[in-house]
Design a protein that fits this description.
With 173 residues, this protein is α+β, with helices and mostly antiparallel strands. It has a domain of 117 residues: 3-Layer(aba) Sandwich (Aminopeptidase), CATH 3.40.630. It is 27% helix and 38% strand. The strands form 2 sheets. The chain has a 7-stranded mixed β-sheet. It has a two-stranded antiparallel ribbon with strand order 1-2. The N terminus is likely disordered.
Length: 173
């Protein structure tokens, strides 16, 4: 994917990326608007969660600078182990540059290559309109709504969305 400043290179993340990933995750988690993560989570706990099995963490770089991160892996084990899950975050300065789109397309391609047949986002905060729109453009459909399931710091109780994409076919309605 190409954004301002050139193409984004997406590669597996490692310990050398921890500072860059934390610099992206920390403001997102502290804002408390998009993830079911405690707003006061520590750096170590956040990174342990981001890199925890069964997920593989990735970074998106442009000109050597990490501008986004994702982690992709099995949503649930056993009979549901063919369904992947993923999370994404971009640096504020990188928004609107195609980084999130590149990360989601990479996640779908990676999941297919690993043998996953579908991808599910278990909890997309309904007020995160940019993400909902982007995921829909990437082929994800809203397949469930969890009424008032997320306590947003400024909007109060808002819905959580379950979004799904069949990786073997096109967009799900």
């Amino acid at each position: 994917m190409t954004g301002q400043g050139g193409p984004a290179t997406i590669r597996p993340a490692g310990p050398g990326d921890h500072d860059a990933i934390w610099s992206i995750l920390e403001p997102v988690y502290r804002a408390g608007e998009t993830y079911c993560i405690p707003r006061d989570i520590t750096r170590d706990d956040a990174l342990a969660d981001w890199f925890a099995a069964p997920f593989t963490a990735f970074v998106a770089e442009v000109e050597g600078r990490v501008l986004g991160t994702s982690h992709v892996g099995m949503n649930r084990p056993g009979p549901a182990s063919h369904v992947a899950n993923a999370s994404f975050a971009t640096a504020p300065a990188a928004r609107g540059r195609g980084i999130a789109r590149a990360l989601v397309e990479h996640a779908k391609d990676w999941a297919r290559a690993q043998g996953f047949r579908a991808m599910q986002f278990n909890f997309v905060v309904s007020t995160n309109a940019d993400a909902v729109h982007l995921w829909q453009k990437a082929g994800f459909g809203i397949v469930g709504r969890l009424p008032a399931a997320f306590h947003h710091p400024s909007h109060g109780y808002v819905d959580g969305l379950v979004m799904f994409h069949d990786l073997t076919r096109g967009k799900q309605e």
